[in-house]
Amino acid sequence: MIELKSGTRIWIAAGFTDLRRGFQGLSTLVETVLEQAPYSGHVFVFRGKRGDLIKLLWFDGDGLCLFQKRLERGRFIWPQATSGTVSLTRAQLSMLLEGIDWRQPQRTWEPQSAG
What we know:
- The chain is built from two helices and five strands.
- It has one domain.
- The protein has helices at 23-32, 90-97; strands at residues 10-13, 43-47, 53-59, 64-70, 85-88.
- The longest helix is centred in the N-terminal third of the chain and has 10 residues, at 23-32.
- It is globular and about 60 Å long.
- By secondary structure, the chain is of the alpha+beta class.
């Protein structure tokens, strides 16, 4: 996992993206469509049309990083909105990367009272 500084925001680009795009194409989308700065240090997450592939664009202070993950089974859970952005927490990003539904995670147990 990448080490994110405190205050780093994680943005999902709603809808799907042509993931043939690389550094330049995705950073242009960040500027024009998401209206964000690709060199801000924030993380931008894009999903392909089939839903089994995502790319993350992130500036680590030295240069742009482009990460890609493909699920061998299943699909990445994505917002139903077709445009705009959705903000995630670090925990939600971790769940997303593992193919877990980050929107409504379920506890496997309920805490019991101490009494």
